[in-house]
Design a protein that fits this description.
Oligomer: single chain
Largest sheet: 9 strands, mixed
Number of helices: 10
Radius of gyration: 20 Å
Bound molecules: nicotinamide-adenine-dinucleotide
Length: about 350
Amino acid sequence: MKKLRVGVIGAGSLSESHLGAYQQNPNVELVAICDLIEERAKAKAETYNIGHVYTDYHEMLKNPELDAISIVTWNNSHKEISVAALDAGKHVLCEKPLCMNHEEALEIKAATERSDKKFMVGYVRRHASNAVILKDFIDKGTLGDIYYAKASILRRLGNPGGWFSDKSRSGGGPLIDIGVHVIDLSWYLMGRPKVKSVSANTYSKLGNRSNIKSLSFYKAADYSPENDVEDLANALIRFDNGASLMVDVSFALHLKNDQSSVAVFGDKGGAEVEPKLTIIHEANDIILNSSPQVDHPSFDFSEGFQNEINHFVNCCLTGEEPIGGIDDGVEMMKILTAIYESAEKQQEIMFE
Ligand SMILES: NC(=O)c1ccc[n+]([C@@H]2O[C@H](COP(=O)([O-])OP(=O)(O)OC[C@H]3O[C@@H](n4cnc5c(N)ncnc54)[C@H](O)[C@@H]3O)[C@@H](O)[C@H]2O)c1
């Protein structure tokens, strides 16, 4: 098979997961890396033996050796880089969130429509084996019709600071950063119904809590404590098929322990995909909680990224349609944008 020649834009913390997974794929040649900070790009080029280093992604996109790119930059650049890369004839894997809001998502969609290249959003949790296994059970009817889902990702002390807490570069706080993972996963498992209405709240009560001395927490590569994003968001999302999804997410909350859970409920059975894959069903008038015996019953970071990157590479090389294409990105940005709008207006947002 012909090798896919890949470049990565953004050489910060998460670029390791992309670069490492591309390096492990025998059908990939890593040819270019770009970051605003030249030293950062050069360091990755050295580690991963990458020939071309750039500080301006426009220059990188002119390189005819490149077939595909990963976008692993701040959220405020996802739209402009996606559009420029598609227009330059490159396949694109864009990190979540797709972009800053629904309007930007529609601009990317327009660029995909004038391009014959593949576009995929990095919804890594869909590619983890716990989700892949559950999706297969759902597709085969084990849960019946799914009418309810509940997603939660609550950090008590987890505002990473830096660009994550600067709304002009991130688009928002825990909702757009980590909430997107669990909302997307729930929505994907529910069968991707169209959103009908959203009712939500956001709170900015606690700030980034960088005053806490007793516990360490994850910090952005370029940390600064300034913060203008929400620290908690909750939402009730209704879909056109009658199903509903309840969500809550936080960077900071007076909570005993961090929590992460995603569960879906159907008329024949239910399932938890996080914190640990479990299928709840009924047989012989008995309720059974089944624990599939798998290597990774919970989300495994490196397995998820390896599967995601392998899938993207395969789509680019074979023409297969990506799991998590632009339409899924647009619907998710519609939901996230409506959550922020509903919270701001303190009213339900209704769609046609
Ligand atoms: N899928 C996941 O689980 C996951 C986890 C973490 C981060 N992410 C996403 O990955 C992206 C990057 O996050 P990170 O944690 O690596 O952040 P980071 O701050 O560690 O790295 C981002 C890098 O992008 C560079 N950059 C910003 N704008 C650029 C531009 N226009 N051109 C070139 N370089 C640019 C910055 O200099 C920085 O080095 C974000 O969109 C984030 O939401 C996804």
